Amino acid sequence: MGGGASSTLDFQLTGSTHYAKPRGKLREWTNRLREDSLGLSELELQSLWFAGAFGRHFHSISGEPIEVVQFGHWNHSAGPDFVDAAVRIGSTLHRGAIELDPEDRDWERHGHHENRDYESVVLHVFFERGCERFFTRTLQHREVPQLKLNLDDSDLEPLDYLPADAHLGRCSYAFKDLADDKIHRILKAAAQYRLERKSQRLARTTEIHGEDQALLQGMAEALGYQHNTFPLRVLSQRAPLSKLRALHSALDVDALLFGLAGFLEGDRHVESKSAVTTTYQRELWSRWWHQRDGGSAPSSGRLPWKTSAVRPQNHPQRRLGALTHLAASWKPFRELALGPSFAGAELEKFLKSLSHPYWDHHYTLKAATAKPLALIGASRARDAVVNQILPLRLPRDPQDTWTQLQKIPALQSNEKVRRAATRLFGEHPRQENFLQKAYHQQALLQIYDDFCLFDASGCEDCPFPEQLKKMAETL
Description:
Blueprint: H1 14-25, H2 27-35, H3 42-50, E1 57-59, E2 65-70, E3 73-74, E4 82-89, E5 92-103, H4 106-109, E6 121-128, E7 146-148, H5 171-176, H6 180-209, H7 211-223, H8 229-238, H9 241-245, H10 250-261, H11 275-296, H12 316-328, H13 330-338, H14 344-353, H15 378-393, H16 398-407, H17 415-425, H18 438-452, H19 464-474
Parallel strand pairs: 5-6, 6-7
Antiparallel strand pairs: 1-2, 2-4, 3-4, 4-5
């Protein structure tokens, strides 16, 4: 049996407890709907595991206590998913590899039981079991301890789910009858809860991989925008900051990340009319070639990049160019993001000032832009502060972090925020009063994710309107 991911925070903001109580009572309802909506790929499950979304303390199928002491690193060659791991089973520490599969019998279906590369596996992790008990065994007939995980234990945040239809919800009538101060208190409670949830997720990554790696992973997600959050997160896991900072130059960082992303394989022989483009691509390929031969090339192929319906300036290659330069400027960025005192304006200014000699003037490895473009625009910089940096800072000073969040104006609106506002407020004449700050948007998104996103009943079965009235009475 898998153990749930426990909170690593030893505090709660006052409002968060008020939102958590009714949400906790509704967990069974939302999980039931969520189970029918999740169809995560094997790569997504691996990324969640490696980020620490399930924690590190578990019990095996046979009931033995398991502690993942070291999660190791992504394997870029043939063989198990994660190598150089350390797992304590009972009182014995085992060093070796970890294999993660959606189902227990994938071990046999994929031929691992006949492959010598899997002799080093010390733990087989999976999510689904067949009708009969399956025993994981290697080619030498060694039994491998099994660990079954549950998605409900991951505190999963939806990344790419399509929003539910925008229509007036039953909760809008409850909001309509509430005074402004009551609505603001409810939104603050939901926003504080969302801030703590994000902080807990980053805290688990920090515990396992360190604060710098948690920050890099968070920034990669922020730069992914709506469509490429997941592949950029995986890329930051496959190429951790420790590996990037060990490279000799910024071009080496570019080459490693673009190579691991799969963006160089089809472009290595491309000749461009632009001398700048030809020179840059040749530099990347020549450096990637050496890293690739050294075992850096992932055996699992390309990441699931999305380029359709994406603005040219948000093409994943440009976003990756921003990440490479951020990694090259890590020391001053880290000081601003995680230093003793928080200065949001200076941090946003730094992010907006980042410049790359190639990516300031190109959309992709082939397409140039007539006018220079900012690597990280104002809206993306502010989004990173709200969704990644402030949650990472929360354990240091909860009240100051919450105060800083309340000061930040609303972020650039998106379809999900607009649909959430429509569901909760409809044509409420005071709607604009509750959309002026970033924390307002965070609150709407939390309520929407918890109750609207997985509701296929057209609001009929949703218990939030009734719980909303109870919250208004207690806040």
